[in-house]
Amino acid sequence: MAEFLKLTDWTWQLEALKVTPSILAGMNKDQELLYRREGIKLIAEIGAALNCKPRPTIGVAAVYFHRFYMEHSFQNFNREITAISCLFLAGKVEDFPKKCKDVCAAAQAQWPEIYGKYHHSLVDEVMGAERVLLHTLKFDLQVGLPYDALLEYKTMFPDMSREQITDAVQIAWTFINDSIYTTLCITTEPQMIAIALLHLAFTVKGYQPVQQNMDPCWWSADVSNWPQESVDKACHLVLDFYSATKEHPVLESRRLTTL
Amino acid sequence: MSSQPYTAGLHQSSTQSHRQAAPKRPLPNRADEPPKRALIGQNGQNTPSGGGTPNSTGNAEVDVKQQLLNYQKIFDHASYPFINDVSAYEKLSKIGQGTFGEVFKARCKTTGRMVALKKILMENEKEGFPITALREVKMLEQLKHQNITDLIEVCSAKTGSTSTSKDRTTFYLVFAFCEHDLAGLLSNPKVRMSLVHIKTMMKHLITGLNKLHRSKILHRDMKAANVLISKEGVLKLADFGLARPFVQRENPNHPRPLYTNRVVTLWYRPPELLLGDRAYGTKIDVWGAGCIMAEMWTRQPIMQGDTEQKQLTLISALCGSINPEVWPNCVKMPLYSAMAAEPNSALPQGKGRCLKLKIRHLMKFDSADGKPQSDPYGKKTNDQVPSDDDAMNLLENLLAIDPDRRPTADEAEDDIWFYKDPVPRANVGDLMDTIPTSQFEYTVGKGAHAGRGRHHNNPQRPHQAPRQSNAIPAGQYRDTIF
Fold first, then answer.
1. Distance (Å, rounded) from C-alpha B386 to C-alpha B384?
2. Does A128 lie in the same domain as A20?
3. B180-456 placed in CATH 1.10.510.10
């Protein structure tokens, strides 16, 4: 990954998504995004079967997954194995540890079409992949999620009714849950994700967060120089996910897509 | 543990959609209108991520074995550009045994910087990278502070090429090297500490602990051996192998989360843990800080029980009987009633508090000529020199039987003692200069430096609580101090 496209240690410029390791190894962009969604779907569903919550375990696992494939290609590293090891590691890091064999058993029970072929070797695979994952993440395991920032905004709109802001925050919460399927977390800081998706919630519901005569970019006190267009762009990523999966739900065929 | 403020239904929009479920609804029920409006309309510039036309040639039965072999190959030959290889360091000697592996002294080949390499044992791990080590890494990343041990990086080494996928890499935590640990320093009678040294070290200790608690982390293994001192004379809290984050209870009516009470080395374990408390908090570390403070003068652990019962008896003997009078909530402790009812109870009643009597006379001000009056043997006293009553006061508070009466680390950091003469200095570098060799406790009792150090035959310090059945083997116990 080209270093100069990095914004921070773990966020990249949008252009970086055009030159990911997978694309450099011959994949096209849409294929890669589909592969990412499939990996995340596995994380989310296996996580749910293990009683993991989107906040924090599944959210953190998803961030690990997206970061991993900014450094490695899907061609070299199976997404189904990486997905489990992300979930397994996130569980340990977030203090909701699940036994490796339980995670693997859940995976095989939920997705026999995908994990059945590994039989008993799955645990060893996941252990091996965990080490690669730890290397790749450079042990930088502390991941901030947008939820905390979102909750802080709950009290920051004096011009809105309590019902309205609660409603908007709940919708934004759901958007955040679903944003893990997109590449938002590798281009945008958690707080900015919270802002963008709360903005989306306001827009969807037609709520007026601030009075007419005030700056419509209500976030500018926290994140300056972030124009509305960029915020909208972030929202579109999530909306694109919804429209893309409306026709073709992720892993509808119960099998991973192959090239 | 983390609060989930919204109803479950909302979290699950897509994360829990079920197999048979109808095509996923893009938005939660409440948002009954699709998200059009301003946001849509600028569609042009956005490449829709698209459903991607799944190339559904089916899952051509790939030879699984081949696939695994490929994976393995990549794994074996990857050059790992991501974290350093441990060969960047030259191992010099083994200096100790941590909670989950050996510790080596080493030198960075490029910078010459001295480091401590803590090896993380993976051999017997059924659960991959140990969660304790993960916690330690994660917490230390958060805890950058001059009084907390400094994690420089995590390194890896490839071990011999075995045929299985296990045991291929070993990880090392790389810490800035500290010349000394407090236990080793205190056990060396040649080290003469003046009051200002002690006060400076206590200030560092409490400041580090306060940083820890403000970061919502419990150390859970406070003891002199886990306090390191750099050669510049700065104290560092170390060994976060048992540490864990805690949740602050905002609403006192909420049940507190329960933790294991098999923590803290026996000699430093507070009464609430010995009585089976599992809803403890930061005050367990404060008790440990109190034990360490007393040790500054006594030069060895003040209460060296060999069983939990004996430890409680020693606490009662020194700090007074444990009962609802001094500690109203003690009746809520899981083991209190049963223990108090026993005929030969580990909770003897009618004992007065004699902490002051035993220690105050050791807490001397430095004499007029600046000579330290602290006596490494903790026996002789100079009656000509007055005792430091502020130090005694702080110690009394740190070692309060009732955890609620112990000060928080934040309160202790502001104790009047630290503002009175002699005021703490930036470091105890001058003290370090008087000590020629490294004083790691490990090297005191064992290894090349065997036979040096502690006077008489002190029992070996018990190691981590969870790893031992009952502290030290019977027969080794000696009540050396009180």
1. 7
2. yes
3. yes
The answer to whether residue A257 sits within a structural domain is: no
Per-residue pLDDT of chain A (259 residues; tens, 9 = 90+): 456 788 878 999 988 999 999 999 999 999 999 999 999 999 999 999 999 999 999 999 999 999 999 999 999 999 999 999 999 999 999 888 999 999 999 999 999 999 999 988 999 999 989 999 998 998 989 899 999 999 999 888 888 899 999 999 999 999 999 999 999 999 999 999 999 999 999 999 999 888 888 888 888 888 888 888 889 989 998 999 998 888 888 998 888 888 7
Instruction: Give the Cα-Cα-Cα angle A82, A88, A93 (nearest 5 degrees).
Output: 120
Same fold: B84-176 with B180-456:
no
At residue B368, the 3 state secondary structure works out as coil
* A121/A185 same-domain check: no
**Are B340 and B330 a contacting pair, CB within 8 Å?**
no
- Class of B84-176 per CATH? alpha beta
Q: Which of A23, A77, A140, A239 to mutate to test the interface with B (most CBs of B within 10 A)?
A: A239
- Per-residue pLDDT tens for B245-302? 887 765 666 667 788 887 888 999 999 999 999 989 999 999 999 999 999 999 999 9
Give which of B394, B430, B20 is closest to B232, Cα–Cα: B430
Q: In the listed set A137, A166, A181, which residue is the last one of a domain according to the structure?
A: A137
**A118 and A11 co-located in one domain:** yes
Which residues in chain B touch residue A200, judged by CB atoms under 8 angstroms apart? 35, 39
Q: Does residue A132 share a domain with residue A34?
A: yes
Q: Which residue from B minimizes the CA distance to A36?
A: B49
In a domain, A256, yes or no: no
Q: With respect to residue A153, please indicate whether it lies within any of the assigned structural domains.
A: yes
Domain of A177?
146-247
Q: Of the candidates A126, A236, A244, which has its C-beta nearest B51's C-beta?
A: A244
Residues, chain B: 482
Judgement on whether residues A17 and A121 belong to the same structural domain of the protein: yes
Same structural domain for residues A126 and A152?
no
Inter-chain contact B78–A132, Cβ cutoff 8 Å?
yes
Helix (H) or strand (E) holding A133: helix A122-137
Tokens found for residue B40: 């849509």
| Structural domain spans, chain B | 84-176, 180-456
- SS3 string of B264-326? CCHHHCCHHHHCCCCCCCCHHHHHHHHHHHHHHHHCCCCCCCCCHHHHHHHHHHHHCCCCCCC
How far is B293 from B316, CA to CA, in rounded Å?
A: 19
Q: Are A100 and A127 within 8 A, CB to CB?
A: yes
For chain A, what's the residue count? Answer: 259
Residues A21 and A114 in one domain: yes
Whether the CB-CB separation of A176 and A149 falls below 8 Å is answered with no
> Between A and B, how many CB-CB pairs are < 8 A?
218
Convert A202-229 into a string of H (helix), E (strand) and C (coil).
Answer: HHHHCCCCCCCCCCCCHHHHCCCCCCHH
What pLDDT digit, counting tens, does each position of A187-237 carry? 999 999 999 999 999 999 999 888 888 888 888 888 888 888 889 989 998
Interface with A, mutate which of B6, B14, B74, B80 (most A CBs under 10 A): B14
- How many domains in chain A? 2
Inter-CA distances, B379 with B53, B178, B293, B297, B374, Å:
84, 30, 17, 10, 10
* Beta carbons of B194 and B374 less than 8 angstroms apart: yes
Lowest mean pLDDT across B119-128, B181-190, B385-394: B119-128
Which residue, A137, A157, A174, sits at the end of a domain?
A137
Q: Which tokens is A165 given?
A: 């802001």
A128 and A53 share one domain: yes
- Read off the CATH number of the domain in which A120 is found: 1.10.472.10
